[in-house]
Amino acid sequence: METSYLDYAMSVIIARALPDVRDGLKPVHRRILYAMWQMGLRHTAKHTKSAKVVGEVLGNYHPHGDTAVYDTMVRLAQPWSMREMLVDGQGNFGSMDGDSAAAYRYTEARLAGIAEEILIDLDKETVDFIPNFDATRQEPVVLPARLPNLLLNGTVGIAVGMATSIPPHNLGELCDAITHLIDHEDATVEDLMKFVKGPDFPTGGTIFDLPEITRAYATGKGAIVCRAKAEIVEEGKHGTQIIVTEIPYAVNKATLLEHIAELVAAKKIEGIRDLRDESSKGDVRVVIDLKKDAYPKKVLNRLYHSTELQETFHVNMLAIVDGIQPRVLNLKGILDEYLKHRREVIRRRTQYDLTKAKERAHILEGLKIAILHIDEVIATIKKSQDRDEARVNLIKRFKLTEPQANAILDMRLSQLANLERLKVETELKEKTQLIKDLEAILKSSARIMGVIKDEVKGLKEKYGTPRRTEVRVQGVKEFKQEDLIPNVPAIVMVTKDGYLKRVPPDTFKTQGRGGKGVIGLTTKEEDVVEHLFATMTHADVLFFTTRGRVFQLKAYDIPEASRTAKGQALVNFLNLSPAEKVSGILPISDLSKDEKYLVMATKYGVVKKVDLGAFENVRKSGLIALKLRGDDLLQYVKPSTGHDEVLLVSRQGQAIRFKEKDVRPMGRVAAGVRGMRLGKKDDVVVGMDVIGKGCSPDACEVLVIMDHGYGKRTKLNQYRVQGRGGSGIKTAEITSKTGKLVTAFVFNGKAPPADLIVVSKNGQVIRLPYAEVRIAGRATQGVRVMRFKEESDEVASVTYV
Question: 356-454 has which CATH code?
Answer without folding.
Answer: 1.10.268.10
